[in-house]
Amino acid sequence: MFDQTMARIAGRFRRVEPRTTARAYLLGLLSRTERKNCWQLAEQAGHDRPGQMQRLLRSARWDADDVRDDVRAYVLDHLGTDDGVLIVDETGFLKKGRNSAGVQRQYTGTAGRIENSQVGVFLAYASSRGRALIDRRLYLSDASWCQDTERRTRSGVPEQAQFATKPALAGQMIAATLDAGIGASWVTGDEAYGQDPGLRALLEDHRIGYVLAVSCSTRVRINQGRTATRSDAVADRLPGSAWHRQSAGTGAKGPRYYDWAWIEIGADGHRHLLIRRNSTSGELAYYLCWSPTRVALSELVRVAGARWCIEECFQAAKGQVGLDHYQVRHWTAWHRHITLAMLALAFLAVLAADATPERPSQPNQPARSTDPIDLTVPEIRHLLGTLLNPTSTSPRRLLYWSTWRRRHQAAARRSHYQRRLASPSTG
Predict the structure, then answer these.
(1) How far is CA 208 from CA 199, 203, 250, 289, 300, in A?
(2) Residues 168, 172, 173, 177: what is their CA dihedral angle, to the nearest 10 degrees?
(3) Strand 85-94 versus strand 186-189 pairing type
(4) Is pLDDT of 374 > 90?
(5) How remote is the C-alpha of 169 from its chain's centroid?
(6) Quick check: 420 pLDDT over 70?
(7) How far apart are CA 307 and CA 383, in angstroms?
(8) Residue 359: pLDDT above 60?
(9) Which one of 36, 155, 246, 386 is CB 3.0 to 4.6 Å from 101, fit for a cystine?
(10) What mean pLDDT, rounded, does the chain reach?
(11) CB-side exposure of 420: number of CA atoms within 13 Å?
(12) Alpha helices in 116-230 (DSSP H)
């Protein structure tokens, strides 16, 4: 299956050298290597220098967007079902310095605060068979990047990359996915995307339903569109009979039950305000919903629950295939590493789906069964790390790479010292 997966992207590389290096790069991402940057991946592949891996990301002739298209098609071929949901969200990559493309001090949920970081906006696909990342955009702020020509040139940001808000980037990815003929009935995302009217309008224009989180202060129109009021005011007036306990999907500890209520908004019967209540804490969450046809409450609940799939994708991509392990600054290199990591994650997700036996849905079955759980992405990556990359490194090679790394680290240290001595601080 790995050979078949590589065959899907082989034609994107004009020469055999980068094609062979890309294969070694992917095997390294699937390996048990501690850090999946070019130095570590080159050592894992048996190379004498990291140059081949670095050229693959920086200067080799191939288009990361073409491979992204292959990843998207691969995911839909193997994981696509009628219940598929597109999910938008962002994740941060903490960085030092200011030369990496898109880096700046900005809020990132990865750290839970403002940090020096890059932020990528991602699109995931989730279905009953599995979930994977299928597209990505690197966010560039307007003032510190899009208007700074020197900084853009230094980091290789192309002229066509202009400022776009995160919801606008999400809309670009969704539109590209739908234009590629990939079917999906729903889109979901958190408040950062649900609050954007432009994104909601785009989805309605494409006739794709959405369940998007919004804030409690979002104003909606009830009573056949005659009355405008805040979402939390609607929730306060709901009678007890309006709430229905349903599962938003199965989590690590079983079905995730919440109390749900839905209220028709507007006048066409296709818009709803969906409200989720935690039965323990009483905490409320709000969603704006639209669908081209009338749907049941259970369908809206299912889509709302699917949003957590992208968080699981981020966790698996960073923890298993090194999505955030890169040490590159250039725009092209960032997109190439991220795309290859997305392919590695998709490969693991497809293996997990193919290894899962088909059986009737019985949420309470795990509580009674003594059988092992289905193969997970981390477990499959652990097995592949041994099968595809058997340990055969000699002590001599280990010492060779240790010496090589330490020499380059010493050279970097000398360079830093010389630069500081040439420009002493006056503070």
Answers:
(1) 11, 5, 25, 11, 13
(2) 150
(3) parallel
(4) no
(5) 13
(6) no
(7) 28
(8) no
(9) 155
(10) 89
(11) 7
(12) 149-155, 166-179, 191-194, 197-205
